[in-house]
Design a protein that fits this description.
heterodimer, A: 344 residues, alpha/beta, D-Maltodextrin-Binding Protein, domain 2, 2 domains, eleven-stranded mixed β-sheet, B: 160 residues, mainly alpha
């Protein structure tokens, strides 16, 4: 046992010395203030806009940007609330309109000053809450491979056609934002009872309920499903990957749900000025362009889409999701959905 | 044939192939540890982020969840250092064949925690690792092509 303890001490001491030497070779590395950004993985990882924004910001801020990633907004907000004060989040990104109540529960937010002159008409009504600023938005719709589906569906009823049995990849609303958007959209356009009745009839059409967007979209990409539920800008991503892509978003007569992604600065922030400057960078024309191109979402500033494929996306009729269910209501609806699935 | 099957329990094989498995595991852990050391494992709370993501839906005893939330996530830098140190320990021990038995128990401990907290589709890998570490500990895999043989010959005891 003495040998083991000696060995353990030796390894840890060696590691400590190695780290110390590395640190002393770059002494001013950690003396800069750290901007703690809480963001979804899709934002912070290499394929998202996070790395570009970090690099750009660090050239001017004399600070270090540190991303704290989460796979979904609910766990991210819970983390933000549970962090001790000395390591509190400076800025939080990536929660949508359905998470605002959760964000406000038990956490205070600073007002973020923004110049709303350039904002798209679609997002102006959302600026009524000065604490939460939208930084991108998207319209959700069914996607299809147009070469594989003869008559493209035009409304929700068409999706129940016998020829589409086991051919739709959807997302689980308990774990996925587009999945929740889909469920709330049905309730909004049909009413709760009719929506669950519709879902019951839709069950045989569903190939899989993916735990997240990428799982469902993966099935669609690999031609294991004819349809999936995603963003109307997803065909742009598809063309970027394969110029011959035949992916199209289907405009439905019922209208389409809209998702807005927000940023906010908690009042417990340690580097609040830096956080506001980072928000300003995201909302700048340059930042918005990167967010648009990396997140495949619409920017909140109109002029940014000019001359890009985003300007050519057809107009989709949107549904005014005026009634946002509170947490308890949302849980009730999700419980009802789970019961329906269990009885499948 | 059936009697021979029962009789085969007496067969004592050579440790030589197991030594190769041990060295391969050591090399694997060394690679993992160096990746962490040269990357941002100690500078960014990647481990804490991944754990915080799975924690709400974790199927584990309440005391374990509380410990992870209050200690591991909040003191992520210290824990990242400990995890990295333990991985270097396993790597060096398996490569040299020194104190393999106690280190294999450390390997089981790490793999069990990874299985609970970070499996995310890698359940089978961590289960296999647990089995391999247990076999290393059981057989005393450092006795072949390793420094443990020196101590095994002179001291015996359960640790060699």
């Amino acid at each position: 046992m003495k040998h083991f303890l000696f060995f353990a001490v030796l390894v840890f001491a060696g590691l400590f010395v190695a780290l110390f030497i590395r640190q002393s070779q770059n002494p001013d590395r950690d003396s800069r203030p750290v901007l703690r950004v809480y963001a979804p993985s899709s934002f912070a990882r290499q394929w998202g806009p996070g790395p570009w924004l970090k690099e750009k910001f660090e050239t001017t801020c004399e600070c270090k940007v540190e991303y704290h990633e989460s796979s979904d907004s609910i766990s991210m907000l819970q983390r933000v609330k549970s962090e001790p004060k000395n390591r509190a989040a400076d800025i939080v990104l990536g929660f949508d309109q359905y998470d605002l109540e959760l964000a406000q529960n038990g956490l205070e937010w600073r007002n973020v000053k923004v110049d709303s002159q350039q904002f798209d008409e679609a997002v102006r009504p959302l600026l009524s809450r000065p604490s939460f600023v939208p930084y991108d938005w998207g319209i959700l719709a069914f996607l299809a491979h147009k070469n594989e589906v003869k008559d493209l569906p035009r409304d929700l009823q068409d999706m129940l056609s016998r020829e589409y049995i086991s051919s739709i990849a959807l997302q689980d609303p308990r774990t996925s934002t587009p999945g929740l958007q889909f469920l709330l959209w049905l309730i909004q356009v049909k009413g709760e009872e009719a929506a669950f009745d519709y879902l019951q009839r839709l069950l045989p059409q569903v190939k899989a309920w993916g735990a997240n967007w990428s799982m469902a979209y993966g099935l669609f990409q690999k031609d294991q499903a004819k349809f999936t539920f995603s963003y109307v800008t997803s065909p742009i991503a598809s063309v970027n990957e394969d110029p011959h892509s035949d992916v199209v978003a289907l405009p439905f007569e019922e209208g389409h749900p809209v998702q807005y992604e927000f940023l906010g600065v908690p009042s417990t922030c340690q580097n609040c000025d830096l956080a506001e400057r980072f928000a300003t960078l995201i909302l700048s024309k340059e930042g918005q362009r990167v967010v648009m191109e990396k997140n495949y979402m619409f920017p909140i500033m109109k002029s940014v889409t000019e001359g890009t494929p985003y300007a050519t996306v057809p107009k989709f009729k949107t549904v005014d999701m005026a009634v946002i269910p509170n947490q308890a209501e949302r849980e009730r609806i999700l419980k009802k959905w789970s019961q329906m699935r269990r009885a499948e | 044939m059936f009697a021979s099957f029962i009789d085969s329990v007496k067969y004592v094989g050579h440790l030589f192939p197991v030594a190769f498995l041990r060295i391969y595991m050591g090399y694997f852990y060394l690679q993992q540890a160096l990746l962490k050391f040269n990357g941002d494992f100690l500078a960014r709370p990647r481990l804490a982020s991944e754990i915080a993501d799975v924690l709400p839906g974790l199927n584990a005893p309440a005391w374990y969840k509380v410990m992870v939330e209050k200690m591991v996530i909040q003191h992520w830098q210290s824990f990242a250092f400990v995890v990295l140190g333990l991985e270097f320990m396993i790597a060096i021990s398996y490569l040299l064949g020194y104190v393999v038995r106690p280190v294999a128990i450390v390997g089981v401990f790490i793999s069990v925690n990874y299985l609970i907290l970070l499996s995310n589709g890698s359940d089978d890998l961590f289960r296999t690792f647990i089995a391999v570490h247990l076999i290393m500990a059981w057989m005393g895999a450092g006795r072949c092509l390793g420094f443990d043989y020196y101590f095994f010959k002179r001291r015996r005891g359960i640790w060699w």
